[in-house]
Amino acid sequence: LDLSNCSLHSVPPELDEAATAIVLDLTENPLMTLPSGSFLGFTYLQRLAVPLALPCPGGSDAWQEVTVDGSGRLCQGQRNPCNGSTDLAWPCPENSACAPDGPGLIQCLCESPFHGYKCLREGTFPVLLFSGVLGTATLSLSLLLWGTQRRKAKT
């Protein structure tokens, strides 16, 4: 994806739609900063060129090689922050596993059959119970309102 020399003053919000990009060029743009979540989900990104004034997202530890040339900084070979090569500031909770989520970013995914907050619930979500209670409450409230408001509709 070539966004070089597009007069970008900030990272466009639509950039997250290009999360499957492998190569991205942002050089020759008057970018001042890269917000920390700009490359969230960019797990396939292997080459990123940014203006010389900006560091590689995630820091130089997030990339295998960082080179500087005349017009920008080239960040190559996104590293997996979950492989133990770097210390994680927020380790994943029990019953979950670390997964990369972009340059220098991680996400914790619950291992099967765990789910919920901090992966503490075991089993599957009780869909039938939830749907039954929600359906019963909706039907009861609808009948109550229909019965109480019906006489007002006749007048």
Automatic annotation (TrEMBL):
Protein name, UniProt field: ARAID factor
GO biological process, one term: positive regulation of osteoblast differentiation
UniProt-listed PANTHER family: ALL-TRANS RETINOIC ACID-INDUCED DIFFERENTIATION FACTOR
InterPro entries: ATRAID, EGF, LRR_dom_sf
Bilayer-crossing regions: 125-146
UniProt keyword annotation of Transmembrane present: yes
Taxon lineage: Eukaryota, Metazoa, Chordata, Craniata, Vertebrata
Keywords: Membrane, Transmembrane, Transmembrane helix
Native source organism of the sequence: Serilophus lunatus (silver-breasted broadbill)
Residues covered by the EGF-like domain: 108-119
